[in-house]
Design brief:
alpha/beta, disordered C terminus, STAS/SEC14 domain-containing protein
Length: about 140
């Protein structure tokens, strides 16, 4: 399975890592697990650095719509750091746009270390300005 995740309830951190060709069913399973574990309010990092997919644009759009529909399940959604190589930005533009419209801090990174530092800063109450919470910022 090319999509792996860990949930740390002590740190309130959900980390998903891609390692290979990710299938649509795996993405939906990951979302199901996050919902089932009450981890929607956790800080989340999606590391797609070593991943790939054959998921089409309509299915990617469907993932974004599903994730936005989860906003009514909890009062707060934790910040989301997405790490993807530059060659995947075009593929994920619609998904990133849908997620950026949500009311939570979101940043897109090229580097896992910078993403983790940002999530740690958010946990400490630093690093998120008001305008940033409404849109994706490429870091």
């Amino acid at each position: 399975m090319p999509l792996h995740w860990t949930i740390d309830s002590r740190q309130q951190l959900f980390v998903a890592t891609c390692d290979g060709d990710v299938e649509l069913a795996e993405v939906h399973e990951m979302i199901d697990v996050a919902v089932g574990c009450n981890a929607l309010g956790y800080r989340k990092m999606f590391d797609g650095t070593h991943g790939d997919t054959r998921i089409g644009p309509l299915d990617i759009l469907g993932i974004g719509v599903r994730m936005r529909s989860l906003e009514g399940l909890t009062d707060t959604h934790g910040p989301l750091a997405i790490v993807i190589p530059e060659d995947k930005h075009l593929l994920l533009t619609r998904l990133l746009g849908i997620l950026a419209a949500s009311n939570r801090p979101l940043r897109v990174f090229k580097d896992v270390e910078r993403a983790r530092k940002w999530l740690d800063a958010v946990a400490a109450g630093e690093g998120v300005s008001k305008p940033e919470s409404a849109r994706a910022v490429l870091a």
